[in-house]
Model the fold of this input.
Amino acid sequence: MKPIDYAAPKTLAQAVTLLAKHGERARVLAGGTDILVQLREGRRDCDVLVDIKNIKQLNELTCNPKGKTPDLRIGAAVPCYRIYEHKNVRKFYPGLIDAVELVGGIQIQSRASLGGNLCNASPAADTIPALIALQAVCEIIGPNGNREVPVEQFCVGPGRNSLQPGELLVAFRMPPPAARTGAHYQRFIPRNEMDIAVVGVGAWVTLDEAKTRCTAARLALAAVAPTPLLVTEAAAALVDGEINDALIDQAAELAQAAAKPISDMRGDADYRKHLVRVLTKRVLHTAIERAKEN
Done:
């Protein structure tokens, strides 16, 4: 590795100034579990690393499911272990916990963050389908002010995101868990030694008062396209009739049709498409069962 400058701003304004000054030659350091490896391997290059761990707003985690304040807000630098150890997040957002607990091992989870996982923009990232399913919105700050972007619009290609020069992802915001809602995330990996999803599926559903029909749904896929996918056709199929195996299978078939995977060392394209159908059915069954319990 070549020499790289290091900066540790303490405010959002300082971070934005640094990022704007150095442009493409600056990289954000949150947990460092991705960027440091990429720099060592020559897959990324920069002149300065901007460590954001000292910025208060990026380390805040608030969960007020029944309050008037933002219902779940997670700073972009909050490490995974703080999310899954938070009692209210664990109780009201189990679909997010499913994904967060899969990010590496204990050591990685003490550093890795939702923000880093999203900004890395891997098509196989575990947390992104769960965030999409839960309607998460990104809060972004930059030289031109603040803006918001739904998570499903944030990744624009493998390793590429929609942040503009000088912009910084500050936090995620998710709506409250309404009655009769449930979410779930599952992935398939080739073996324990290769901790990267061959396919990942996240789902969120809302049921009617009788808990026999789905009134709203979201379904997201990982590792089957250049970016994580929000599959609206599959979700729409779930609200067409009474919940049963045939309806779930129809949604799974539509999710399978939306997948456009490649073949690589983790699995060929046909195998991945098969897994999409299998995992979608499993994830929907669990999300529906969770909704019935709420």
